[in-house]
């Protein structure tokens, strides 16, 4: 029997740009939805301009990182500053179940493509808006970059070496995180639509979604008024020691080790050859180990420092200790685990060159994802404007010439 | 109250720690009927993690357990015991989704791998969220959140100072990533179950999700093509400046002024000092090359001003700088107060808990926590009663330690 993906009948117009919106569309696409990213050559998405480029040729259709994050989305081009383009966008939305956007609040309204306008052509539309801080409130128009958005959640204030200043995360992990969670929000609203016939406009504040990650520290504030600072790699609830990253042999090689239970501690002690210091009273039970975590980490680091990270991880696993190598980007492609799971795949871009992107980042036993690479700008124009919207050939050509479809 | 978005969906959770519980909480937040199964005796390990009021440990007063388990019904069941396994499978017969994060080899040993479960309910969507996933050479490794996170390359690439240890973000980042991935893929599989022709296993590796959607997205294509890769620098953005966290009078700010108009805005806020006109600071790229000279000059100014003042003045001037809010400042911020993000949930033992609200807003069918996390075995009589077990049966099962 032919495989049918679970979201096969869902069509999505994705006005999302840069990263978060495209990942929401990608997630639905990996699960079978028909997703069209709406973009324009009149205003190239910044994500298409970022290096490195395929074969080193700088071109908005050759940004390698762009293709990984956007794969699965199709692409149609509309120069939305032109009235005819807006009318075509409305025609497309009328044939969609879902609209995604991650501009600032009001940007879609400025294009006369706000929720109220869209629901007139598609009354049960599910629209996901994911601005930085939500659709209303005093910070509604706050300007942030993806990587600084986390500063408004408290998360940056607990990231850093223990006792030191906050250390920035050097990229916007909140973008893909919110993209993935945004797909869940859409599906919840679709389920509600199917039951009630009602669509809705989802107010997805990236600040609020990410702030849930602060819960381990936030709850200590809620219950005790205590305000946490950076904790390094320590257990977020201080329930484990050792719990950290320790140096290994080689350039910038490290191993992660986490010990929560007494059994795991005994396993670690055995793996270390039962050194005398490990029998000291300050390490005798879990509470003591947590209290003396700095001294404990110094001892463990001295032991790991001249060992191979992979070999040591395997040895610790044999002793029942949670340990794994700390990988760098170069390791990811060659690591046997990621290779076995097909985490990264080589594909042919619609324009013909080969490139490596990530595939289905979750595995499904019945409906394996079809990963479409790309997208090339406007790759789905023919299909959408001629077949879906039924534009006559001469009109289609004319709109291209007038840079409406552009 | 009107039905929520996921009303009518039944979810069984066999989860501990953060990943499976947070995933199931997302379903519970939007009105799915979520039944959480805990081990008889100690229950979910987060019951022992706190934080506890006045730091006094109590299994029914853990703040993290509370956050992760609101709106759920809770039962105790030892699925390893033969009778417990039978009851578990019985529960699955009427369920739409199972969310679990047990070690794959344990599930196999208990006869609860997907193959066995699909025989009982072929329509069930089984969401398995583990550090490394169901397949691959590390799938049976023993690991926690920290191990999964650092296997993704995230810390090595993006967090920490050169020469010092790669860092996680002060929370269970990998388990959160795994949780949201399991939620979206799991709900999709349940949504389209008829189309797909039945249930299936959704295999989430927390490490893989981050390695793919975050690290892989922006790094793997370039590495595969050119064989080169980058590492953490300790600076927010090494190629453009200013773009990093800087100290100020009362804490820190996330200083950002990359585009020309942003730099002009920052200059205006700082009183247009002469040095900002110098050639080595003309655009974001040359400023990054001269960052060692520039950052101390900006810091001289930020040291004299508070984070909220800097944020407000910069934002007004078109410069996207923000305050690095403490957990308290974030929670009490007027913006979140006005939006009603923090909500009161009543709990018998904890009193009124100021809990974080729904992660996103569905105006037609609002979600979020409204009922407290269950006490250990709180809903045993109710849930097992629905399966047709009598009070006598339950007493016998309790004696045997099954529930």
Description:
- The complex is a heterodimer of chains A (406) and B (403).
- Chain A is built from 17 helices and 12 strands.
- Chain A is α/β, with parallel strands linked by helices.
- Chain A has 2 domains: 11-204 and 340-401, 3-Layer(aba) Sandwich (Rossmann fold); 243-247 and 253-327, 2-Layer Sandwich (formyl-coa transferase, domain 3), CATH 3.30.1540.10.
- A 6-stranded parallel β-sheet of chain A has the order 3-2-1-4-5-6, sandwiched between helices. In chain A, strands 7-8-9 form a 3-stranded antiparallel β-sheet, covered by helices on one side. In chain A, strands 10-11 form a two-stranded antiparallel ribbon.
- In chain A, strand 2, helix 2 (64-70) and strand 3 form a beta-alpha-beta unit.
- The model of chain A has no long low-confidence stretch (mean pLDDT 97).
- Chain B has 403 residues and is an alpha/beta fold.
- Chain B has helices at residues 19-29, 63-69, 82-93, 104-109, 114-120, 145-151, 154-158, 173-191, 193-196, 206-226, 260-269, 284-289, 291-302, 307-316, 327-331, 334-339, 380-386, 391-399; strands spanning 10-14, 33-38, 73-76, 97-100, 125-130, 200-205, 243-248, 251-256, 322-323, 342-347, 351-356.
- In chain B, the strands form 3 sheets. A 6-stranded parallel β-sheet of chain B has the order 3-2-1-4-5-6.
- In chain B, helix 1 links the parallel strand 1 and strand 2 (33-38).
- The longest helix of chain B has 21 residues, at 206-226.
- Classes of the chains: A alpha/beta (406), B alpha/beta (403).
- Strand 12 of chain A pairs antiparallel with strand 6 of chain B, so a sheet runs across the interface.
